[in-house]
Design a protein that fits this description.
The chain has 441 residues and is α+β, with helices and mostly antiparallel strands. It has 14 helices and 10 strands.
Length: 441
């Protein structure tokens, strides 16, 4: 609102650029605060779960991010994929339970004649259920309610069940490795065969011909550099004559590794096997692979990034670390092809600026708003322009000072000429006066 009031009646492009720069600064500030919370380690573990099992549950707390594997929770969705219910199982120590709950558990055990006192942990179940336009949440331990049931707003639930590939008929997702299970299994079988063959080839066994003069016992008992009676022709070495077969297996293994490296976006997979590979070629191949996974990023953007960043911003606003947004302003995530397009905006600005300033250096400054161009480039690159760019007032003051300095310099240069001209005029006047006096005399 402040930006709109400040730029009211001015250029619409300048106003939009200033708004984008302001949002970019907020984005960078929130990202910096999140980095200090240490969520990256938990998210790395969550991504591993997604790649393998296709499912993981996140609990976004103000001070940390907790990760639950598929063994620790169940969920239910409607046919459209909307979440309806989550049940989470955790192990909790007796010391961590409230005393009132612990007394009820011990009383229930006595009523059931359960004299086992070896329990040091209990199973704590947390249920999150959608009720109307909110989430109802409560906890139970040994069929006893723990704490006070609560509620969450519909768009601010800290429990986020993720799935990598969604299916409308299933409550859970599919893992990334499931698509390449055949290749992974084949690679495992071939690698095992190569390892076993290598172990067999590494085993050294000597063969002594039957009826030979050389005795196997003498060779076995002989020390290093010892002399043994025998003939060289009596001894052979056992060999595995499978080199051609091993080459076929090795070639197949290398092809599988190369294909899997591409689907898992390893950097070595996008570099061509040649002496000279340009950076543009590598950038193009990497972008092609990322574009192919744009649909996957879109699912994560909707089901993970937006709920996660919404909760983080909510916690930061409650703690007073950032200002609360006005009504109607909601965070949005940019992923997949759109995220690539955002970076493409910066590349387009760079290419355009390079082409204009190189081909028409004199006309460029006349027709292009350089300050606006720099602000637009900073917004496209998510750079805080308030730190590196001068504002309009500073630029105007510096231009005025430069103009005054130029005028003063010109005045100082013109002063000697003016003095000389004044001296010549005065001399001419004196000469004229002298002539007139002589005439009168």
């Amino acid at each position: 609102r402040k930006v709109i009031e400040e730029y009211a009646g001015q250029n619409k492009t300048e106003m939009l650029t200033e708004i984008e720069n302001g949002l970019s600064r907020i984005e960078k500030e929130v990202t910096g605060i999140i980095e200090t919370l240490g969520d990256r380690t938990s998210l790395y573990a969550a991504i591993q779960h997604l790649l393998i099992s296709g499912n993981v549950l996140l609990h976004v707390q103000p001070e940390k991010l907790k990760v639950f594997s598929l063994r620790s929770y169940v969920c239910k969705r409607d046919p459209d994929g909307n979440l309806l219910n989550i049940i989470v199982r955790e192990e909790i120590a007796e010391e961590a339970l409230p005393k009132s709950v612990l007394k009820k558990i011990q009383k229930a055990k006595r009523e059931q004649n359960d004299t086992d006192t070896t329990y040091v942990t209990h199973e704590l179940y947390t249920c999150i259920k959608r009720v109307g336009n909110k989430w109802a949440v409560w906890q139970e331990c040994e069929d006893i309610t723990v704490g006070t049931p609560g509620t969450y707003p519909l768009d601010k639930c800290p429990w986020i069940p993720l799935r990598l590939y969604r299916s409308e008929e299933e409550d859970y997702g599919r893992g990334y490795v499931e698509q390449f299970y055949g290749s992974l299994q084949s690679l495992e079988i071939l690698s095992t065969a190569i390892n076993e063959a290598g172990a067999a080839s590494a085993k050294i066994v000597f063969l002594v011909h039957p009826g030979a003069i050389t005795k196997a016992e003498d060779l076995t008992r002989a020390d290093n550099l010892a002399f043994v009676v025998g003939q060289r022709s009596d001894i052979d070495t056992l060999q595995v004559d499978k080199m051609n077969d091993f080459n076929v297996t090795k070639t197949q293994t290398q092809e599988l590794k190369r294909d899997l490296a591409k689907v898992f976006l390893m950097q070595s997979s996008v570099q061509r096997d040649a002496e000279r590979v340009t950076a543009e070629e590598i950038r193009y191949l990497a972008q092609e692979l990322e574009t192919a996974l744009g649909g996957l990023y879109s699912v994560l953007g909707k089901e993970f990034q937006k709920p996660y960043i919404t909760m983080r911003i909510h916690y930061l606003q409650e703690e007073g670390k950032i200002d609360k947004f006005e009504e109607g302003i909601n965070p949005e995530t940019v992923t997949g092809v759109d995220a690539i397009g955002r970076g493409q905006d910066a590349n387009s600005l760079l290419e355009y600026g390079s082409a204009v300033f190189k081909t028409m250096p004199q006309l460029a400054s006349q027709y292009i708003n350089v300050h606006g161009y720099l602000k637009a480039l900073a917004a496209a690159m998510a750079v805080d322009d308030s730190v590196i760019l001068k504002n309009e007032e500073t630029i105007a003051q510096e231009q005025q000072q430069a103009q005054q300095a130029t005028q003063q310099e010109q005045l100082m240069k013109a002063l000697p000429n003016a003095v000389n001209a004044g001296g010549r005029i005065l001399q001419d006047q004196m000469n004229t006066q002298t002539k007139e006096d002589n005439t009168n005399v």
